[in-house]
Amino acid sequence: MTTQVLNKHLENNLGSRLYFLDWIRILAFAFLVFYHSALMFVDWGFHIESGYNSTFLKTIMILSSKWRLDILFLVSGVAISYMITKMPLKSFTWQRIVKLYLPLLFAIAIVVAPQSYYEAIQKGVFEGNFWQFWSSHYFTFAWDKRMNAPFPTYNHMWYVLYLFHYTVLLLPLCAFINSEKGIVILQKIEKFLTKSSRVIWLPLTIYFVIFFAFNNHEVTHTFYDDWYGHAIFLFAVLMGLIFVRMPKIWLSFQENRFISLAIGLASYSVLLTLFLLPNEMFPFDTGLVWGIVEILVKWSWIALIIGFARKYLNYTNSSLKYCNSIVYPFFILHQTVIIIFGFYVIDWGMSGTLEFLTIVVGTFVICALLYELLIKRVNILRLLFGMSWQNKESIVDDFCSKSIVINNDKIS
């Protein structure tokens, strides 16, 4: 296979944008606002707590917590595969440092700090203003036993930390799958996976192999000892990395979406039963069964989301383009906004439902305002929040174009 033919093959496989994956990414990140807000209303341990303990929210969270990060890592693997093909290795590596590690360091130093401050205030660990906390307590580089957390910390930015290191780790594989031999192997894998419903069963089997290879199935988000977490998340990135080079694979997900739906609903029903009923009612080890069912829920819901999104969300519009631009800064901001806003909302004396809805809606509004009025208009902030540098003319033009669209009522 000549270089020209090789490049043509890569262009054919990676040439068209998969809009349904953009929608999955945006909706999954948006769901984080719901999930992290809900953590204030359950007894699972969060940075601040409302005092409410909602069983209803738990029933939704035990479903989404099994797949929401895995599907984001899978979509991130797709993005890595695109980028490594379209730019030199040196440029790609530098781009990842600027887009991932720079925002990570900024978030640890500035964005995440208020989360620790308000947690310390609510738990009675610290008294004083934020500046006093940040300047004298936050950068101690020690483990605080009272808060069971290190200072400084990365909190929700663990996803970015993990993704950066997975990207570096997978660089040799990226080079291989761009090679002639790599392409031939991927074509054989694609041919195998797209027969019948193998795209459902083979990844599920690998997930089970990973599960039974570990005694401890807790995902800790602590980078240096989160071995089970690394295994499942790295596998998700790997799937995205190679699936995007198999054009027929997405259609296979779509064709098998009802099989995924059946497995997903059945396994979720079992998970709910195990969750809602006391362990004493079951004549078996519920811990092991819970872990097995978790795997079924995880992959079946990832597969059905991909399948239904491929069927119904494979299109673009102005909303998608806008959300693609805002989603990364939004992710960096959202948990800090939830905690600061929520800290005050829980003292307003509202019902639990109204508190929760206020925090969710308020977080979306505050994040959008911070992005529109500040982040996207200040270049240094654009870089620190993972966006590209933009000249003043572009910013003005962008604002004017949006104003024109709004005035002409063309937003879909």
Brief write-up:
This protein has 412 residues and is mainly alpha-helical.
Helices and strands, with pairings:
Blueprint lengths: L2 H12 L4 H20 L16 H10 L3 H19 L2 H23 L1 H10 L7 H7 L5 E3 L4 E3 L6 H12 L1 H7 L2 H14 L4 H16 L13 H17 L3 H9 L1 H20 L9 H27 L5 H28 L6 H22 L5 H6 L7 H16 L5
Antiparallel strand pairs: 1-2
Helix pairs in contact: 2-4, 2-15, 2-16, 2-17, 4-12, 5-8, 6-16, 11-15, 13-15, 14-15, 16-17
Description:
By secondary structure, the chain is mainly alpha-helical. 72% of the residues lie in helices and 1% in strands. A hairpin with a 4-residue loop joins strand 1 (142-144) and strand 2. The longest helix is centred in the C-terminal third of the chain and has 28 residues, at 318-345. The radius of gyration is 22 Å and the shape is globular.
List unreliable stretches of 5+ residues: 395-412
Number of strands: 2
Biggest β-sheet, characterized? 2 strands, antiparallel
Write down the overall geometry.
globular
Q: Strand-and-helix sequence, N→C? A: HHHHHHHEEHHHHHHHHHHHH
Radius of gyration: 22 Å
How many domains make up the coordinates?
1
Helicity range of the residues?
over 70%
Distance between the termini: 45 Å
What is the structural class? Answer: mainly alpha
> Proportion of β residues?
under 5%
**Spatial strand sequence of the major β-sheet:** 1-2
The whole-number mean of residue pLDDT values reads 91
Total number of helices: 19
Task: Identify the notable features of this structure and list them briefly.
412 residues, mainly alpha, 19 helices, disordered C terminus
